[in-house]
Amino acid sequence: MKTVLLEKLRASIAEWARMHNIETTVIEAKFSGLGAGVHLLVVARRGFENWRWAERELFRFISNQFNGTGDFVITRLETMTEAEYEKFEGVEAPY
User: Fold this and answer.
1) In sequence order, what are the residues at sequence separation of 6 or more whose Cβ sits closer than 8 angstroms to the Cβ of residue 23?
2) Three-class SS state of 95
3) Euclidean distance between CA atoms 57 and 17, whole angstroms
4) What are the pLDDT digits (tens) for 24-76?
5) Domain edges within the chain
6) Alpha-carbon distance 53 to 79, whole Å?
7) Could you count the other beta carbons within 10 Å of the beta carbon of residue 38?
8) Contact, 44 vs 79, CB < 8 A?
9) What secondary structure letter does DSSP report for 33?
10) What's the burial of 54, exposed, middle or buried (CB within 10 Å: 0-12/13-18/19+)?
11) Considering only Cβ atoms within 10 Å of each terminal Cβ, which end of the chain, N or C, has fewer?
């Protein structure tokens, strides 16, 4: 069931990206390990360069798509360009 939910989230994000002419390269959805928390990452080759509110708009879209089913809670949502992703991909988080 968890795998199906993650696939639905990825498909929903891909649909949102198509609607906004965003060329995605990475769409990652995974459970955080704490309860029903989900981490989402969307990386785009084109489309996020000058869009300050992408996370907010995507969050609203996903919330509307799943209509508060309670199956998950978005605990982390990030959108970034390929350049940002490449810059931070190899950086480990400090402890």
Assistant:
1) 17, 44, 45, 46, 47
2) coil
3) 11
4) 999 999 998 887 889 999 999 998 887 778 889 999 999 888 876 678 889 99
5) 2-89
6) 10
7) 21
8) yes
9) S
10) buried
11) C
- Identity of the amino acid at 80: M
> 81: which strand partners?
44
Tokens of 40: 């989402």
Structure tokens given for 89? 């991909």
* Polymer length in residues for the chain: 95
- Architecture of the 2-89 domain: 2-Layer Sandwich (3.30)
Statement: residue 92 has pLDDT above 90: no
| Token pair in block for residue 86 | 């490449």
Please state, in angstroms and rounded to a whole number, the distance separating the CA atoms of residues 21 and 16.
9
User: pTM for the complete prediction?
Assistant: 0.84
